[in-house]
User: What shape does this take?
Amino acid sequence: MKKLLYILACGVLPALASFILPWYSIAIIPFIISYVLNMPPRVAFWGAFTGVAIYWLIAALMKDIPNNHVLSGMVAKVLFVQDYRALLAVTALIGGLVGGLGALSGAYMYEVKLRRK
Amino acid sequence: MRVYKGLVLTVLTGTFVFLLDHSFTSVPAFGKFLDPARGFWANAEPADKSFNQDIKVPGLKDGAQVWFDDRLVPHVTTTNNYDLYYVQGYLHASFRLFQMEMQARAASGRVSEVIGAKGIEFDVKQRRKGMVFGAENSLKQMESDPRTKEMLDAYTAGINAYINQLSYTNYPLEYKLIGFEPEPWTNLKSALMLKLMADDLTGSVDDIPLTYLREHLAQDVFELLFPEKIPGSASVIPKGTAFQPASLKAPPIPADTVFPKFTRKDFKELKEEGVGSNNWVVGGQRTYSGNPILCNDPHLGLNLPSLWYEVQLRCPGLNVYGVSLPGAPGVIIGFNDSVSWGFTNNYRDVKDYFLIKQNPDDAESYMLDGASKKYTIRYEEIKVRGKAPVIDTVKYTVHGPITFDGHHPADGGLDKPLAMCWMAHRPSNELLAVYLMNRATNYETFYDGIQHFFCPAQNMIFADHSGTIALHGQGQFINKWQGQGKYIMDGSKSSALWGDEIPTRENPRVVNPAQGYLASANECVTDSTYPYWYNGGFVEFRAWRINQVLSGLNKATINDMFALQNDNHSLLAERALPIMLGQVDSNLSAEQQATVQQFKKWNCNLDANSVEASMFQIWWYDLYHRIWNEFQGLPGNLYPLPERTLQLMEQYQSGTLKLKEFDNFKSHVGLSFNAMTDSIKRIGKENAAWYKLKNTSITHLTRQKAFSITGLETGGWGNTPNAMKGGHGPSWRMVVEMGKEVSAFGVYPGGQSGNPGSRYFANFIPKWAEGNYYKLNFYSGAPPANQVKYQWNMHK
Assistant: This one.
């Protein structure tokens, strides 16, 4: 249950923050959450990865579907990616990776705090 | 252990994020770019996006209504001029910002700031042409007239109002891809846009190559191959038109030698070629309806976003429709309720080169009539993205800037210091001409207006609702002595200097000619009765063909005009093919005989799916090169015009040609025929459709294939009225009937939006490629509600 809530928080909070914070809040917010909740590294990474990847995927789809994949098809070519599906996957992957690494850093930083005490 | 891991990981993650947040030359900032909230996904316009908006902008005096029709063409209504041009600026910026910025950067040689070191060579070239120098001179002129000053100020304010409310999220896609920010607009940038057009349209007169050829060929051969006026030119101003007598006497040809000598070795390599356009008007006595019909299709580089943006502008004293140039206010080609007009490039030579004699004792000076004269130095700092800036020192002489020298050789690899004397460097106010043309109510007001149009010189066609038709070779020209500026001149002699400007009212023009129609297609401007000497880079095939068709029309309709703009008939093929076929050997293989039979049945139209068109074009291309290859050392791109080649072939055929190099003509025809049949075999007949071979393409300004369109199924070629080449073609086709009500049709290869993610990005292209037109909605008041797709309500 905690894991599920963690994933959800890592996806939803950056989505809400996106109205005011820059894109890399997808690293900062999972960092803080995993630090505060003292998540075990493995869970921290994969949880945030999943949460952020799903957020980016859904957000991208919300732009892409009404556009009938026209722009994503073109940008895929520019970035040498197969097609719009692959570009959606790359988007989710990059988002997930940034989120996961942020969370992983947070998890390990918790140890830094313990040591200092 | 885990402690270090924590710190190291945080640093690594931070670095990773930093890298994804920064763009490098040719790699976008991936994190920022892929961010679905603000990155490129934000540019994915919903296919059913509504453009309705209530827009609050600072600086608008009164307010504005903008109605968009179903093609996203805005119909703007304001209560005053200022608001009108303000809104035009806001519109251009909203739909074409990237294009405007890049073109202004290209004009001023500031591309490297954005694309990095690969732009340096281009930037240096632009700086050395004195583009900014010319734009500054013209801007002074434009800002000294209250009408154009207001026009520019309003237009710039409108663009900047749009830019100021932008955030990264709504930057045009290309900014995100390349990774830079929109820069504020200035009046200078609008002046630069007009210089960019001047550069595009006055760049192809071949003073430097001709200098080479004059050295290389015997004089009689040179004159035979490169006549100043092609015999039988259709001429823009019809033969027999009476010209206003010259108020200036022709200057005497200087007694001293003003053409410096070069040798073949001074030239190392060579390059090529130009753009063209058609316009014509059929007077009421030759149309079915009795109203004049005016047509224009300027041929320019085919790009996305398109060079043009369609617009209707209306305020007290003005109601004009046509195409505008994103980056400049007003309507460039179009019509209002009283008059219509169109342009083709005039090609009279207004750009000459002078060999500069450096003062051997002083690096800062050059010689003029034996005396030393200081250069005016302009330091050009070219900022380069990711690198240190490059400083280029451009030396200005009495003639103009030294454009070429040892470091930056001219065409042909000529590495001597050459200064460029160019009409576009002089102060001028073309914008005032645009302002006045847009407001013209009859021929006289139109004619007064175009007097301000100096450079690039244009053949300006005109028709009004009272039935007047006219054509003008309009621009600012120099009263030259015969031969002046035809070749590189000796810049150390003042006798070579440009003399007086010819009063623009003495420019050749014709009003209501007896023949009842007028046409121009970049051919020679006048017959030999025009009192001033000039030269230029003129071509004839399209003009011949258009005159041929128009002279046969007595009850012309709009549909006839559409057909002529889309006419693929090759006069070259019609006249050359019989000669070529006549020279082909009689002992041919069965297959080759079939080819000959196929040609005999062909209508000489370069239609999209014609295989004969491909066969003829290949055959001609090969033959043409074989013919001129006979002239030892004539570089491939300095061959005489196909028009002239054809005339010489005809002379050969009739036995009147005295040119020993043509002795092998018959064998060249045979060899090129074989080469052609071999090529077709290799390509395969199924792949030999003409459109596949020529591959008409519309390339995005970023050169990204993904945003470009290739392989359009179109016929035509540069020498047919439908001048559809690989990357050049009709950039705007317009047909206007000037009746009681104006009835107008048009299409351009693009769409109103510059956003590749918009459904309005390239939506006109299919219609354009098919040769069809849109009916242009020209309203005298508010449009009927059912024709309004979206609406902007703009207020302060």
Summary: Residues 2-116 of chain A form one domain. The longest helix of chain A spans residues 84-116. Residues 23 and 98 of chain A are 10 Å apart (CA to CA). The helical segments of chain A are 2-17, 25-37, 41-64, 70-78, 84-116.
